[in-house]
Amino acid sequence: MYERALLAVWLLTLVLFQSAESCELRPVLAQVPKRLPAGYVISEGMEELTLKGCAVKPVAFTSSDPDFADDSGLDWRVDIILSCKDEASQKSSSVAHKRIKRRWRPLPFSFIENDSPPFPKDLEMISSDSSVNYTVYYVISGQGVTTDPVGLFLLDKKSGMLKVTRAVDREQYPQFNLIVRVYDLSGREVDDFLPMTVIVEDKNDNAPEFVGGRLFSVEEQCRAGTLIGQVNVTDKDLANTTHTLIRFTLLNATEMFFIERFTGRLTAKTNSLDREAQDKVYVNIEIRDMGGDPTGLFNRGTIVITLTDINDNPPTFKEKLYKANVMENQENVLVTRIPVEDKDLVNTPNWNALFEVTKGNESGQFRMETDPKTNEGLLYVIKGLDFEKTPVVNLEITARNAVPLVGADPAWLSVPLELSVGDEDEGPEFNPGILYLKVKENIPNGTVIGTYKALDPETKNSNGIKYYKVTDPGNWITVVESTGELKTANTIDRESPLVHQEKYNITIRAVDESKKEGKGMVIIMIEDENDNMPVIPGNDLVICNKGDVLSSVMVEAVDPDKRPFSTPFIFKFGAEHDGKWKLKDKTDSSVVLEEAVPLPNGLYSVPLLVKDLQGFGEEQTMNVRVCSCEREENGVGICEARSASTSLGSLGILALVLSSLLLLLLCLLLIFICSTKRDKLYISDDTGTGGMLLKSNTEAPGEEVKEGALPIIPGTDVMDGSHQNGAMVSKNVTSAAGNIGQHFLQGGSVYNTTTQDFGTDKYYTSGRYDNNLYGNTRFQKFSNMSALDSWNANGRYLERKLAYFGEDEEGRYADDLLKTYGNEGAGSIAGSVGCCSNLGEPESLEFLNTLGPKFRPLADVCYTTNKSGN
What we know:
With 870 residues, the chain is mainly beta. The protein has four helices and 58 strands. Strands 53-54-55-56-57-58 form a six-stranded antiparallel beta sheet, with no helix packed on it. The longest helix has 32 residues. The chain is flat, with a radius of gyration of 65 Å. The N terminus and C terminus are likely disordered.
């Protein structure tokens, strides 16, 4: 065991419990060489190791045994601290003046918590080896001195005696960490500082306490030893000592429960815990420290153990025999209530009862239910009883729970019930209740197919009973009122939708002399006849044209008759077969129709003769369309889209022709209306026709005034072309009669200009169509007119226009009213043309001769437009 440097600390643990509790063992501090041979005596005598009350002779410790055994044969727990000697310090006293590493003593020490006064009390002497060579003083710091709790410890600087000034609670401060330093008189630290731990020794001053919940539960009738729960406690004293060694003791219910003395595990002690006897048990428990020693501190508390329910009690009946009454023929009525008792927990599956009729219900005439509130059994009659057959019915009722029964001998209980059936005057009864008759279809009307009679239950005869039909969907049967004979009234058809699985049902009512009645059912089983031929449903077929490859389609036939009057069918071509087709791959009900040669697209008629197994059948014509298919779905071709006339058919074509004729008539009507002379046509001042003054906010020619903006009446016989810009669209129209017209579109309004023949001259008509229609009509002769003629025409137009302005008419547009305009600003050399609007006399045109230079911009526009040939 080689150590590099200063301290080698060994902690050796040997435990001995002696009867003498006054044995005080203090830590032993010994210095040893760096090399410690076996047999080396570490300490000898009681000077270093005081075993007060522990041994009567000195104890020697050797290193020969790694457990450090002593020769007394007894063991104690002692802390042995070994430190290496500094052999250089022992070689010569001449080197004593050199600074060497020194050690402190004593080592960590302790004091008892909550010690009694007086204070301060001496704890230990602190000493450093440097005190041999120097006059020293000590300084202490740390918890209890310079930090909380400040002032707990005092240190005598010169002697090194450490004192405590007041009592300390170990549960608050289990230990204190201090640092001690040593200085000579010059203030120089002459040794390394000593970290020192002061341990507060525990005193048994805290009683154990309960922690956690104290509510437990266990099933009743559980086995002995079943764990119920863990009782948890705590003790603030030092753990793993007798101060916190707690013993648990039950103070009551010891015959029912058991608690382990040092663990607190609570278990059942018996197999007979019964919830019905006691559902909650309050158990008092004592917890005592010091292992249960009478001197230990203790606490007492109560825990609650709830016994949970199991189904260990079956429902029991209050009576040994139950009796009840019910009238015959009553259905879905409550007969009686059957009460039961159950000791298990109410409103749980262990308590809820289920009832069953275990005897006497072989025909299913009874039903049992449970009242959820009272837990009573409810007996219902669901099928009427017959007094004449069973005047008394004996039943057995058994009661169960919703969950299985547990216990030593689990068994459900039953009780007998005697049910008396009351008699009443009943109506006739059919015997049997359902009559089956076999009838061939298509038998002649009036044929008797059977007789259905009823009997009076009391007299057992049919005297005075009359019969009536209640239901007969096809009205195929009549009933003879006095005898109950059944006759055919109409043809019975097996293939009718009223027949289901070859059966047809009717209902008969029987009424006796007392007006009591009974009902019966007749089921007619219809036998088949060969009265239907095979039919191919849908005679239109589609074959996809695949070029040179022969195409085919499957043809299926149906026959509502059953074998041997239907399949297998016989397929043949009719007499008109043209040889373009052939049949192959026949089955019982189908055949494949295939091209004999590749056929072009088109519609073909194919005659097919289909017969049933008896040779009954007729020829049918199939319409087969050969076309270019878009796709095939489940073997059926879908032709590509065809022209509208083809796809619409004759009715569609007729509708299109009629629509075209109506449209043509409407056009002729519009032409007639437009060409008819009007008595008065109002013309707006912005119609855009030739010779009109246009309103403009810009007097000089600009972008707003372009060629074609003012249509001028041409000097030729024909108007040419169309003129269109951002403001107006002009279009020539020539009618079938040779009339020439012109349309204008400007600012969202529609302008119309037409010419009409009057004798040998042509005349000009202008008008505007807007939200409100107003206009003017003027006749203009078209010829190769001179410019003077055009101006004269314009003058006449302006005269008529101004006369219109002079009229006072309500509803006229605001733009049609005369306004006075001033100079509208710069931009025009001539200034404003407002003189045109300041009219002294509405009918005078003298202003045209005095327009002067202000009219030049408008004249330039008109001249330019006229010169351009428009």
